[in-house]
Each structure stands twice: as C-alpha cells, then as structure tokens.
Amino acid sequence: MIKSDFGKRQRGSNAPYFYTTCCSLLAASATVLVLVGCSTNPSAELPNCFTDSVSNITITADTTDSWTPVPTTARYAHRIFDYAEANNLYYGLEATENRIDVFRLDSGLVRSILLTDPEFDQPIANIMVHTADSIFLTANDPYTLLLINHHGKLITSWKLNEAPVEWDYAPNYYHSKRNFQKPILFNGLVHIAITPFDFYYHSNRADMKLFCVYNLTERKWTRLYGHTEGVYTTPDITLPDDFTLPNLVYANGSVWVSYPLSAHAYQYNTKGEFMGKKCIGGNAISKIPEPPALDADIQQETNYLISAPFYGRLSYHSKLKIFSRIVFHEIPLYGNDGKLNQFCNRNLSIQFFDQDMNPIIEKAIDNTITLLPGYFIATSDGFITASTCGGKKINEDYLTLNKRIRFNIVSTGTL
C-alpha cells in the first residue's frame, strides 16, 4: 500500500486530498482529482486520425549528442528548469536554496544566480527564460509572477490573486511544481495554466476553463478560456493529476491546448479566442480504460496511474516546422515478477504534425530514448531530455537533463 504524505481526504469533505505515487520518475507528491460532469459512459473510445497518406515523409532521431558535467562543489538535481537554445544555456532552479544554476551544456557551469530579494521567500514553482536578461519566475503564497535580470535582481512583479475563476473554496495553487506547463508570454500578454488540483474547486466542471490571460502592462486579467470534453466531464470518477495536467504550446500566431486523455488539440489566438480544433488521436490509444470510482481508495487510483495509457504534451520544433507529442502506451498492472509494474517499462511512440496540426506520422520510439513527463524540453529540432528513466536519485551531482535528441526529416514532398 502506498503511504500518503498528507493523509487522504474523507469523501464528502471540502478539502482536497493527496497521495504519493510509486513511480520512481514521478518523485513528487500527486493529487487525486475529483471530476464531475455530464457524460454517462465511464470509458471513452478515442479516434485514430493518422493515415498512410503521407508515406513520402521519413523522420529519424539522432541521440549521439550528450554531456555529463559533474560539479564537485555543489549538488545539481534540478526539478525546475528551462533552456535558452540561442545561447545553449540550461537554467536549473534549486528552489530550496533560492539559486538558479546556469550551464553551457557543452562545457559546464557558467554561473549561479542567487535570489536574495524578500519576494523570493516563497515557493518558486517555475522558470521561463524570455531573454538572457529577462527571466520570469512563478511563485505561490501569494500567487506572483516575478521578472529578474541575469544577476537575479528583481525588476518587477505582478500579484495574481484575483484570477477570474469561480472557485467554490479557496484555491490551492494557480501553478505548482507538479504543473510542468510554463507560462507563455507574447506582446505583453501572459497565458497561465491553472493546476489540476484546482479542478476540485469548480462547481461546473463540464464547462471549466483552465487558462487565464493576464495583461502585464495594464496589470489585469483579460480572459479565461479552455475546453473540457470526454472523460474529463464524466461524473463520479477520480483521475490522477498526471492525466489532467493541461498543456499550452505557442506557434505561428496560435496557442494550442491539449490534454493527456484527449484526442483533440484546441486552437486559440493570442487573446485566448477560440479558433477551432483538430483531431490528433493516434493508433496507440484506442480507448481510455474505465477510471476509478469516486470512492476508490488510494491504491486503486495509483494502479490506474501505473497502467493506463496517456498522451504527453504537445511541442513545437521551429527549425523543422513540425509539432510532436509523446504517447505513453498502456502496460499490465503487474510485471512478470508479480510485482506492480514500473512506469519505465512502458512502450513509447511519438506523433508528428505539420504547422497546421495535421497528422503526419506516428512512430515507435527506441527503448534507448528516455522521454519522461515533465523531464524534457523541446528544442527547434528535437528535445533535451534525461538519459535514464528513474536511475538517479535527487541530490546526486548530475544534471537532470543531459541528452540531446535531434529529429531528421527526409521528404519527397513538402510538409
């Protein structure tokens, strides 16, 4: 039985409840999400939108580029990170020490940025490198967006307490370390994803919107947007938050929204106005297994997390002008040894889409390539990712992301 860090919420009470997963790669506490909606079918079939009509395109992966800078004077086990591709700089946040470590991936540590302003005496949830001298951080308690320069000096901050969300109770966090979705910034507008914990606080979950647009210049919220469909509106079920983490990706003037258990991508403009949706389901996931019931115990919910299939987040690769999405296949609950299976035993595949989100091809991923939820960063032509699946422990001297994957496209036509 998995032990809870905080204790499980009694059914019918007003407080959310938490559990810890047994998957070594998800070495953080996870919440159980309570979903309420209008669907009556507890399992859902997903469409396959990939065909053989684009057989003129071949995509391969090159994983020869890797590095292992191992410092001797400090420990670097970053759980929060970003990558500035133009300068080949990796930014890793050591939140417990209020320090950002900056690495040049081909040579090692460049500098450490110390966060000394009193504003940083609060939990830092995420980092987004806009430019070398404009680094955004999200923080909680109070909910804040902070802008610092490359020395760590606080330039300005925005309090985000009054998000236009109809909470039933006081919210947990707008954003947290469990939410790998970074804010997206363009033209003075920042798009922020609400964490899955906060699904619990909505009374109308079938019409729940998960993304907020904030105007940095006017210092006010301008729009709330998003869709929930399918299993996310099924009544009387629970889902692990790893299957509900919302995803935003920006490319070519549009914001695309996707979800782990959805076969669709939803298109919005930069103001958050809906423009349409595309089918992006593949052949690896034909059906979502029946989720645990609302009164399921923690072990049943954890078992679902271990075995059920789901989609990773959408990524855009600007040099190749394609989108990609990792697919995590269903696995048996128990391994050959009779013990609960491990996440790392899953088969993976990757979907590719053109600039208009039309499916190109879905390919199996070689088992030597590691792509973990939240532990890879999209680049212009591939990913920077972890080199092993659960093979390192926190506080070891290593960089969490230490391998580069590059995609190669051979085409007899055009994408």
Structure commentary:
The protein is an all-beta fold and 415 residues long. The chain has one domain: Neuraminidase. Helix content is 2%, strand content 39%. It is built from one helix and 29 strands. The strands form eight sheets. Strands 4-29-28-27 form a four-stranded antiparallel β-sheet, with no helix packed on it. Strands 5-6-7-8 form a four-stranded antiparallel β-sheet, with no helix packed on it. It is globular. The N and C termini lie far apart (49 Å). The relative contact order is 0.18. The N terminus is likely disordered.
Give descriptors for this structure.
mainly beta, 29 strands, 2% helix, single chain, 4-stranded antiparallel β-sheet, 415 residues, Neuraminidase, 39% strand
- As for the number of domains, it is 1
Give the mean pLDDT.
Answer: 75
Please count the beta strands (DSSP E, at least 2 residues each): 29
Distance between the termini: 49 Å
Proportion of residues in helical segments? under 10%
The biggest beta sheet is recorded as: 4 strands, antiparallel
What's the Cα radius of gyration? Answer: 21 Å
Q: At CATH's second level, what is the architecture?
A: 6 Propeller
The CATH superfamily name is: TolB, C-terminal domain
